[in-house]
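Progress narrative, work stream C.
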Amino acid sequence: MRNVTLIDHPLIQHKLSLIRDKDTGAKDFRELVEEVAMLMCYEVTRGMQLEQIEIETPICKTKAKVLAGKKVGIVPILRAGLGMVDGMLKLIPAAKVGHIGLYRDPETLKPVEYYCKLPPDIGERDIIVTDPMLATGGSSSDAITLLKRKGAKNIKLMCLIAAPEGLKYVTEQHPDVEIFTAAIDERLNDHGYIVPGLGDAGDRLFGTK
């Protein structure tokens, strides 16, 4: 599918299997999600621009490469997207973090916005939206629409698991947004959950039901 990258590194696939396991408790679940997010971030940021500078090693002067260009913004979709932020910040500690609050109406399955707080220079940053589960795609698509309305121009979406329905919806609504996922699952069930999935990511992260 156009603009969709499946990150199938063995370490990510191994940890994702542990995340899926219903017997994995909240503490281990949180740590694993953070680790997978950090590993995925390595691939999501592959396109970052570099510039050449001169430094001095203990031996001599030399040319070296450092990051150039736009700054990074990480925007988790509350609540579950929060679980991916700390892993990413370990690789990009200078990134600013915004928050978008959306919940899914249990009757209509449509996303409802309840919170939005973003860096003031959102338009100057490369934005990475985090949401562990891309199910119907409604929440992610609405979050991206909101970011664009606030001035964001370069947006990527990063998920642990995606359903084909969600991928199709987001790519149709936002063909300019790259999507990165560690797994593409079979389908959605009648309740809008990904099959086989991992259940409710927010509940499993924070020990709620």
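Work stream C, second folded protein:
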Amino acid sequence: MLDFSKSDGLVPVIVQDAQTLEVLMLGYMNEEAWQKTQAEKRVTFFSRSKNRLWTKGEESGNFLEVVGLHIDCDQDTVLIKARPAGPTCHTGSRSCFNTEFNQNFVLELERIIKHRYEFPSDESYVNRLRSKGINKIAQKVGEEAVETVIAALAETEHDFINETSDLFFHLLVLLREKGISLETIAKNLESRHQ
């Protein structure tokens, strides 16, 4: 249970991308904003400048869909894992913290590939590859793996990075084709580590 009495009725809220774990923004909630967030599954803050409840995305459409709510050990701070519907920052940036690049872009790429599967487009390489079937997708992973090994043994570091990137990309497409997420792979690796 959140303790709103510690800081004049407002608690800090850290919003994190549920998939990439990138910190997107910091805001504040009063008890009413907390209840509305839980009920509607969209992040609502108490805006100190507007002196009212404010649902992130109410004007831009870039809502933050709640995936998980976590209260800290002192019960006076909230971590929200959310699925952003677009840029989080009012400047149009992905994050309010002006990070140079998404350090978890592999996770973001997984989301992009999933989107390509759900909303096919003729211009999308993912969908052209997918239309050729799982055998072709698996073959591409094999080709890229061989090219990665060759680059590691006989080519430049730049070539090796490019081939490794191609391998990762095609492996992500194969995982999507099989309906397996990176989270499943991560959990499997974690269980092996233990």
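The longest strand covers residues 64-71. No further action is required on this item.
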